[in-house]
Amino acid sequence: MERVSVIGNSGSGKTTLGRHLAAALDAPFVELDGIFHQPGWTELPAEQFRERLSAVVAGDRWVIDGNYSAVRDLVWERADTVVWLTLPRWLVTARVLRRTVGRGVRRAELWNGNREELRNLFSRDPMQSIVLFSYRNHHGSIRRYERRLADPAQAHLHLVRLRSRREVRALLDQVRQPST
């Protein structure tokens, strides 16, 4: 594990796991949301997104968290491992709800001055409510990644699929063990 792509539905724990993996592997950590979401929630154009990420993936070691189709080919071409979080929907929904409420109450800055608004929690628009987006996207996300990862073009990737908190802890324990 030297170049790791961490993927999964919104709220599945990509960023938390990615940070822990990067620390254990002594590798740079990149959160794609932090590049993509510019001030005022403006989306970075795909060409600029790809340019910014190209320098990162050219490196020898990294952990990248995110699911952006605009840059997936760049990341997966250079990745040696994909860690895929497919935790149960009830758990992911509870996590994203708790995270969203906490961020909203604290007015926590996410990336580039952006903050989650508590009022979005009650929106019926999944592009406004990350909780609704995550809930609705859960099973479709799994089906899409099953197809993408079965593609022979991805045969070079070592796939680590994590379906439970226990499996996540076991992976971290394994990566943290000193090599013998």
Pick out its properties.
single chain, 180 residues, Rossmann fold, 7 helices, five-stranded parallel sheet, alpha/beta
Please provide a written account of the structure.
The protein has 180 residues and is of the alpha/beta class. The protein has a single domain, classed as P-loop containing nucleotide triphosphate hydrolases (Rossmann fold). It contains seven helices and seven strands; from the N terminus they run E-H-E-H-E-E-H-E-H-E-H-H-E-H. The chain has helices spanning 14-25, 32-36, 46-57, 69-78, 89-106, 130-150, 165-176, and strands at 3-8, 29-31, 37-38, 42-43, 62-65, 81-85, 158-162. The strands form two sheets. It has a five-stranded parallel β-sheet, sandwiched between helices. Helix 3 (46-57) packs parallel to helix 4 and helix 5 (89-106) packs across helix 6 (130-150). The longest helix has 21 residues, at 130-150. The protein is globular, with a radius of gyration of 16 Å. The relative contact order is 0.19.
